[in-house]
Design goal:
alpha/beta, 5 helices
Length: 144
């Protein structure tokens, strides 16, 4: 199993495909892994369940996280990531359709690095995801 630089956590296949397309446009999708719910995201990150063969030391460099998902929602995933010493420094960007203040406030309380509401227009969506990927994967300097 290959390890991903970007973990995309998105239950909506159309939004996931648009996100992957935008990242490919900037050559940032070569090492992307897409999971479709919060439970699968936690299994991937902590190398358990169907991902138990994965090396748990090879963590994603960026997690793009939707909030409204089946099984385990995005806020619960964010909480698990940020309270674990091994995963707390992974940049997490919430990429969601929610513009509700309580989601924004709760995400930042739990330690999200950025909160982005998905633009409704196709070109704006592609541009926003491209910019996010470029910033977090090329410009941002994570801790070693």
């Amino acid at each position: 199993m290959t390890d991903a630089d970007i973990l995309l956590v998105e239950d909506n296949s159309t939004d996931a495909e648009l996100t992957i397309r935008a990242l490919k446009k900037n050559n940032l999708a070569n090492k992307l892994h897409w999971v479709k719910d919060g439970a699968e995201a936690l299994d991937y990150i902590f190398a358990r369940g169907s991902y138990s063969e994965r090396d748990p030391d090879n963590l994603p460099k960026l997690i793009l996280l939707d909030l409204r998902m089946p099984k385990v929602d995005g806020l619960e995933v964010l909480q698990e990531i940020k309270r674990n010493e091994n995963t707390s420094s992974i940049p997490v960007v919430v990429l969601t359709s929610s513009k509700e203040d309580r989601d924004i406030v709760e995400s930042y309380k739990l330690g999200v690095n950025s909160y982005v509401s998905k633009p409704m227009e196709f070109d704006e969506f592609i541009n926003a995801v491209s910019t996010l990927g470029f910033y977090w994967m090329i410009i941002n300097q994570p801790p070693e």
